[in-house]
Amino acid sequence: MKPAQGHVFVAGSANLDFVARAPHVPAPGETVLGRGLELHPGGKGANQALACARAGGASTHMLVALGDDAFGATLESSLRDADVQLHIVRAAGTATGTAFICVSDEAENAITVAPGANDTLAPHHLPPLGAATHLLLQLETPLESVEAYARAARDAGVRVVLNAAPARRLPASLLSRVDLLVVNEGELAMLAGTDDIAQGLERAGVNDVVVTLGARGCIARSGDATHLQPAFRVKAVDTTAAGDTFCGALVARLSAGDALDVALRYACAASALACTRAGAQSSVPTRDEVVALLAATKEHLAADRDALAAHCGVAAASY
User: Fold this and answer.
1) What is the number of domains present in the chain?
2) Looking at 179, 208, 244, 304, which residue is catalytic?
């Protein structure tokens, strides 16, 4: 196993986000009048790489596919500005990935993704992982490639972290190569075949699992240990990229050598701060901002911990 030094490698998607604000997310067949349009760099892989870089503790590399268009140039600039070391596949004649996002007044969102160049990321594109401690993957690129990258990382002694989003059923051959699985409640239900969180943790098919629960916080199972981390209380403006911020921050801190419970607390704080700002990558906080929030919140209310435990169907645990 690699030591807690080196870098984090992210392989995944990059999209230019077209974001419209509206009173509520449209129902099927409904047209809602929005309030303006904003463009933000995004995509699960790129968001997580940027969040990882801003969390500090380890340098961040990313394998990404971009079209030879202005959207690709915008995404590349955003990642380089965050000191992400890029390994770019140029998808000539293919548009850079895009996402169309509606954000409601309650800070909820609905997202439609046009993968574009992301679909060209192939198994042979992964470079040598070198001194990487962790490989962070998502599901906005071809599943064949995701599984090939996980296999290569395992062979190289690099820990594999999979954020199984967007939700889909996954083959056991992929899950068997995952060291840490990160999912939200819906994604866990899809993988485990149950809405019961405690049962889902047992059935997920991976020994170490983190389940993000939005404004409630998160729960993790690592072997026989369970960790509960209540959310930090903030005024949410836009939840876009909150989950990606969590994933990137979590893996960065694990790579830096933090214990899982410590990394979970940092990731929850980073995710909470991301909800206080509009956009995807534009909302990801710096390490100094997260450290300030952690210092201001020495401990959570026992009631928050108990409510989280009750929601997950487990006994309240220390964290």
Assistant:
1) 1
2) 244
238 is in an annotated binding site: yes
Nearest to 81 by CA among 121, 42, 50, 36: 50
Structural domain includes residue 2: no
Return the residue matching tokens 């690699």: 2
Q: State pTM to two decimals.
A: 0.92
d(CA 116, CA 65): 9
Q: pLDDT tens track of the chain, all 319 residues?
A: 444 457 999 999 999 999 898 999 999 999 999 888 989 999 999 999 999 999 988 899 999 999 999 999 999 999 999 999 999 999 989 999 999 989 898 888 888 989 999 999 999 999 999 999 999 999 999 999 999 999 999 999 999 999 999 999 999 999 999 999 999 999 999 999 999 999 999 999 999 999 999 999 999 999 999 999 999 999 988 887 899 999 999 999 999 999 999 999 999 999 999 999 877 888 899 999 999 999 998 777 788 999 999 999 997 654 4
Domain assignment present for 319: no
Q: Please confirm, yes or no, whether 244 is among the known catalytic residues.
A: yes
CATH of the domain at 169: 3.40.1190.20
Q: Phi-psi category of 228—alpha, beta or left, where left has phi over 0 and alpha has psi -120 to 50?
A: beta
Confirm whether residue 214 is marked as ligand binding.
Answer: yes
Residue 283 among known ligand-binding residues: yes
| Residue 244 annotated as part of some ligand binding site | yes
What is the domain extent for residue 224?
7-26+36-312
